[in-house]
Amino acid sequence: PYAKTKDILSKAHNEGYGVGAFNVNDLEFIQAIVKAAVMENSPAIIEASEGALKYAGDGDVEKGAFILADMVRRYADAVSVPISLHLDHGHDLKHIMAAIKAGFTSVMIDASDKPLEENIRITRQIVEVAHAAGVAVEAELGRLMGIEDNVASAESVLVDPDEAKRFVTETQVDFLAPAVGTSHGAFKFKGEAKIDYERISKVKELTQLPLVLHGASGVPAQWVELAEKYGADLSGAKGVPDEVLQEAVKRGINKVNTDTDLRIAFLAGLRKHLAENPKEFDPRKYFGEAKDFVTEVVRDRMKMLGSSGKA
Ligand SMILES: O=C(COP(=O)(O)O)NO
Ligand SMILES: [Ca+2]
Ligand code: NA
Ligand SMILES: [Zn+2]
What we know:
By secondary structure, the protein is of the alpha/beta class.
């Protein structure tokens, strides 16, 4: 059934496992994620960024929010596993309000590029409105490397655990995304893929909240190689290894944001199908194989994070 992100994450927090938060822009990815959740008997958080709302609404964010929310709700209510819908990286109050109106059960306000006091002020404002509507709020502290908040920050600014304690007390957010060394996209680490485990543990201890890891895609070699076999150029692609994610979950990460892995799997499936079926022009066929690859990647992630069987 369509569920509240807060219920999904409270259970994961209490029982110590990770739940994938999978980014979507369209029908195909929603179908693939729901199918994976059913096959794994796993909860799933579906998330859409502001860009995804624009894409689904052909430029109209509110229309996109309602279109995506209607699809997710209908698919979720047709299955026995809990599926929620979350606004990822909300920056604009108008867009956050559109998501709340459309029935998203949680929203992220990402003011992590602002000074702490301003992040607190903005986040508190969103919490007030969201909580009044029964919607949970995620916020971010610290900054991920790479393109983040449309600001290219050269280096990541890791979360300060003491600031995190103050932040959650003063804002009453429901989940917190501490920057601990990851970054968005397929090219995550210059050198070794490592994140600051100690920092995760400290933030968990001080906040006692479900924690969110952004930039958590693994960029699995098998999918990169398959996409490259059929013409993609993903040289230098590198993600967060499974064992690093599993340690992060052990230390208190419960929501694991995954976008890039689904994109690469879809790309590999699409390129493969088109290369092997030159006569094919039915999108239900070539999107069909691409969708199946996304389902596979999502299932793998659910198994790896420990949410399989936890529905
Ligand atoms: O943080 C993410 C996704 O990160 P990836 O690019 O690692 O999939 N979404 O908010
Ligand atoms: Ca941010
Ligand atoms: Na998010
Ligand atoms: Zn993110």
